[in-house]
Amino acid sequence: MNLGQQLAQYILSGLSTGAIYALIGVGFAIIHNATGIINFAQGEFVMLGGMATFFFFSALKVPLVLAVALATGVSTMAGIVFERLAIRPLKNATPINLVIITIGGSILIRGIAMLLWGKDTHSLPTFSGDEPIMLGGATVMPQHLWIFAVTLVVIVCSKLFFSHTISGKAMRACSYNRRAAGLVGIDVRRMVLFSFAISSAMGSMAGIIIAPLTMTSYDVGVMLGLKGFCAAIIGGMSSGLGTVFGGLILGVLEALGAGLFSSGYKDAIAFIILLLILFIRPQGLFRRGESERV
Amino acid sequence: MLRKISFIFVSVVSFLVAAVCAFAAPPIKIGGLFAVTGPASFLGEPERNTAQMVVNEINAAGGIRGRRLELVAYDTQGDATRAVQAANRLIKEDRVVAIIGPSTTGDTMAVIPIAERAHVPLVSCAAGSKITSPVKRWVFKTAQNDALAVARIYEYLAGRKLTRVAILTVSDGFGSSGREQLKANAARYGIRIVSDDTYGPKDTDMTAQLTKIRGSQAQAIICWGTNPGPAVIARNARQIGLKIPLFMSHGVSSKKFIELAGDAAEGIILPSGRVIVADRLPNSDRQKKPLLAFVKDYQRHYRAEGDHFGGHAWDAVMLLKAAIERGGDNPAAIRDQLEKIRTFAGIGGVFSYSPADHAGLNKDAFVLVEVRNRDWTLVK
User: Domain containing B24: what range?
Assistant: First the structure.
């Protein structure tokens, strides 16, 4: 096995992990854009997606497709309830308070999941078989193709939604200037609720499609959430391509770092990148610096 | 007058107390420190369950020398600070005669000074070899040393002339202890470690490390971790078409691993306590009887498979029982009697403690098992 083949495998593995980071990161970005807060409970929706699918599929013996749909529904509901109970009642909270509330919320959700479903790790069947696919010296699982496909579809849909629908445009308006959006008749609070619903649905999709590969348990959300957050930071909190590239870059660098240097520094790589970006280009890799509008 | 009344009162009370003592001897209290919640709950939960189950059974059978056994168990959450607090409480408030646990090596190391100072015997359920080496007067343990598992794997590899090995260990206490032992013992078996990689306990994709190993000269991979990492590694190895044999540690010797790894578990070999192959052991095996009893009881009480983690607590309670039966419930006597226990067939192995050895097991405590048709088979 030559270095070229190894590199191909590293990059392919990195891209498939990166696609997940991207999907989670976009969830962060959507909420950030609509509300100005970083929702650190985003990782828990990823966990909810995987665990709820497992619950419906294994415990209630629901067919897999239906289990996926139900789990997405459950997680979306959880996102909506979370917004209603934890975010909305605070009228004049500063963003930092809200961020701390989301951290508390994430601990609560994790605790509930642990009590409901136990501490075991669970596995889901793959969507279409276990036979690895060869791609120029590297291999991927059919499930990886699902990950790419779902990420692509979700990103395209969100792009269309934000550019071509009234609700999407209204949400963008909120992200630019909440007060002005309110003045022109946009129900800002409804848009915030929307943003939580959309991002929890996206997070749960991410959790569902990776569960067959990486297993799922009540505590998978923490690390995945942080990696998604890194992706969003690299992408400058854009809810579109910026974050997607951010996730892919992060995944590939992690895989290359683990393969070529030392696997002990895999997570360190992600967080060093995060710190570098925050120090040097806080607006993200792809966004031009914006001057503060006064 | 008042003096007379109080005299009578005191005599009556002391008579009553004495009578109660004579008719129902107070229970013998033993303490338990288990990581029931937190990251090491996969150890602490079965340990707590098993300890309680064994204590109940001993009491149902009439207790020890006619006295009931009482288990006072606290949750350490796998946190050394909590373990220390709980240990102090057990010794000072609950006044236990001996302590079982803690579940992890880190917790145990933190608790050792307390047990040593208070002169209370501690029977740890953790595996780290530094717990009993060097020997500490009041500290014993029931879990098999990692070095014994390493020896089993290396023996097998050396027998098949597989001398170039890649190791892939998890970056937590269990993994780093395994990594230390793997590196320290390699030369003795003529084995060379050609690739030394780690992964995080929460990592979800290890194809990068495995690809690196595939590019090396390794003839076998030894992976050291607890679920779910090894299951991910087994799947990743299958994905990238790795052909060399894959070995796991005793950290995954439960059915859960096969369930998680699915078909990718086929052909994987690992050292394990005998508990997972209890029914396949020859009748001449001394451990067969206690093993079958433990597995059956655990199944009946908790509707789950008894694993070797629970077995550590089983051994600890039974060893204490044997010691108390022989020497009474004085902590010092328990310690002395524990040290005199020889060839005690338990779940983890056949224990023979001595003043120079408080771990009590040799490498026969492990057997090698291979996953075939989603079940364990003994490797000869």
Answer: 9-144+289-365
| Predicted TM-score of the model (pTM) | 0.82
Residues B29 and B138 in one domain: yes
Confirm whether the ipTM is greater than 0.85: no
Chain A residues within 8 A of B228 when measuring between CB atoms: 121, 214-215, 217
User: Cα–Cα distance between A173 and A194 in angstroms, integer?
Assistant: 14
Contacts of A13 in chain B (CB under 8 A): 205, 207-208, 211
Question: A234 burial class (0-12, 13-18, 19+ CB within 10 angstroms)?
Answer: buried
pLDDT, tens only, A114-165: 999 988 888 888 888 888 888 877 888 899 999 999 999 988 998 898 889 9
Domain count, chain B: 2
Q: Cβ contact (<8 Å) for B208 and A267?
A: no
Look at A6 and B45 and tell me if their CB atoms are within 8 Å. Answer: no
Nearest by Cα to B185 from B218, B145, B217, B219: B145
Task: Give me the CATH number covering residue B75.
Answer: 3.40.50.2300
Judge: B215–A16 Cβ closer than 8 Å, yes or no: no
The residue with tokens 């499609």 is: A209
Q: Which of B219, B240, B272 is the last residue of a domain?
A: B272
CB–CB of A13 and B214 under 8 A? Answer: no
Neighbouring-strand partners of residue B100: B32, B123
Amino acid at A252: V
